[in-house]
Amino acid sequence: MQKRTGITILTVEDNSSDLFLLEHMLRSSGLDIAQLYSADHIHEAYTLLERHTIHVVLLDLTLPDSFGIHTFIYLRPVVQRIPVIILTGMSDTNIALEAIKEGAQDYLVKGELTEGLLAKAIQYSMERKRTLENLRLSNERFNTVVKATNDAIWDWDILTNKVFMVGDNYKQLFGYDIVDAYTPDGFLEEIIHPEDRDRVMTRRWKLIRDGGSGKLGG
């Protein structure tokens, strides 16, 4: 039997009329849907997320056993890598925005839903979540390399003059209490020996201005 390759969607909604409308829109949206799951209680949704492969969650924040931002926070342990789109009424958009700050991908106002809008929100949310997950994995690999090599690595934004110290090797090697954080203003200048400071800083800005290559100490 050929394995279905479409997306699997979980709708968490306790209003039967809203659920019927949502599922109708999903089936009419043109999305390649392999399976639709539904839950009307937060505990049921949690169990479904543990037992099945879910690609996106449509979540109403007002349920019989949960309300408001606590609904999303309850599910958060099992949706770390799954995009969650909040379903809200016009009067609850502030709560939806709070859920986005806590990690949800997007929100949709029920009264404004269309098949096209729903499909785009799902596709964009899945893509954003995929991008964030790839970035997380890349950062994990990068931090592993940093620890293995004992290199002190920093990233300098020349537009803002902000310096980000990567990993905890600066603390281990030099004693600076800076771990995966931006340094105080003027930090790079302060750690250069006073006798070399003017020469190094002048050379650095000249390289940036001229777009050339070379060593700061050259």
In short:
The protein is α/β, with parallel strands linked by helices.
Write the layout of secondary structure elements.
Blueprint (H helix, E strand, L loop, with lengths): L6 E6 L3 H13 L4 E7 L2 H10 L4 E5 L1 E2 L2 E2 L1 H7 L8 E5 L4 H9 L4 E4 L5 H35 L3 E5 L4 E5 L2 H6 L6 E2 L4 H5 L2 H17 L8
Parallel strand pairs: 1-2, 1-3, 3-6, 6-7
Antiparallel strand pairs: 4-5, 8-9, 9-10
Strand count, sense and barrel status of the largest sheet are: 5 strands, parallel
Integer average pLDDT: 85
Number of helices: 8
Instruction: Work out the oligomeric state of the chains in this entry.
Output: single chain
CATH fold topology of the largest domain: Rossmann fold
Query: What separation lies between the terminal Cα atoms?
Result: 67 Å
Strand arrangement in the largest pleated sheet: 2-1-3-6-7
What is the count of β-strands?
A: 10
Order of helices and strands: EHEHEEEHEHEHEEHEHH
Per CATH, the superfamily of the largest domain is: Response regulator
Helix content: 40-55%
- The secondary-structure class comes to alpha/beta
Annotated CATH architecture of the largest domain? 3-Layer(aba) Sandwich
- Spans of at least 5 consecutive residues with low confidence: none
CATH top level assignment of the largest domain: Alpha Beta
Q: Can you tell me the overall shape?
A: elongated
Question: Which value, in Å, is the CA radius of gyration?
Answer: 25 Å
